[in-house]
Amino acid sequence: MASIIQIVSLVAYCILSILDLRFRYTVRERYVKPLLMPVLIVFYLSSAVALGLEIRYLLVPALFCGFLGDTFLLDDKYFIPGLASFLAGHVFYILEYLRNTKFSWLRPIPVIVVLMGYILYLIIVVQNLMPSVDRQMRLPVGLYMAVILAMSFSSYLMYMTGKTAGRIVTWVGTILFIVSDTILAFNVFRKKSGAGIMPTYIAAQFLIVLGMLI
């Protein structure tokens, strides 16, 4: 039964993803987009049961926060609640990744090099984005950017203490999440194209979950 649910939910996620991309910026989007994360939750839980894996319960609230964020961001006036929802989801991801990190196994040099890369990325984005952000929005936007980078970096730490295919897939997913939210930020505050927001977001959430199943 679990494997049937797994297959059905995976197919449903793929169909919803295609429909979401098709219905972008239309009224029909609000009927499709909020379904993405609940279906991905079902896929994750059914897959974990079918494969006999430990269920990583922190992933479920992380994905649920994604559902809240997706729903809030359907209306621009709920941008702050949407931002807060995704921030909370990143905190759950961080807790899950750190829970699976053996800090005594980490090697300082590669960790420092990668950390500097994340910091450099943050500096570049801040320099190019913040002048266009309203003053009252700069703190929440800056905090969100720091947290999502911390989320991705914690995924890297998890990967470094157990270099499995699954962990690198999850790390790639977190990087796509950064790409998606960077495009979104420039779309909202600098009116740049938002064409890549949903493809990278859909792939990011799926790869994060898939990596935890491999």
Task: Walk me through the structure.
The chain has helices spanning 2-22, 29-32, 36-51, 59-72, 79-99, 108-129, 138-160, 165-190, 197-211. It is an all-alpha fold and 214 residues long. The chain has one domain (2-211). α5 packs parallel to α7 (138-160) and α6 (108-129) packs antiparallel against α7 (138-160). The longest helix has 26 residues, at 165-190. The protein is flat, with a radius of gyration of 17 Å. It starts with a helix and ends with a helix. The mean pLDDT is 95.
Give me some keywords for this one.
9 helices, single chain, mainly alpha, 214 residues, flat
Could you write a compact summary of the structure shown?
The protein is an all-alpha fold and 214 residues long. The protein is flat and about 50 Å long. The protein is built from nine helices and no strands.
Sequence-ordered SSE layout with sheet pairings:
Blueprint: H1 2-22, H2 29-32, H3 36-51, H4 59-72, H5 79-99, H6 108-129, H7 138-160, H8 165-190, H9 197-211
Helix pairs in contact: 1-3, 3-4, 3-9, 4-5, 5-7, 6-7, 7-8, 8-9
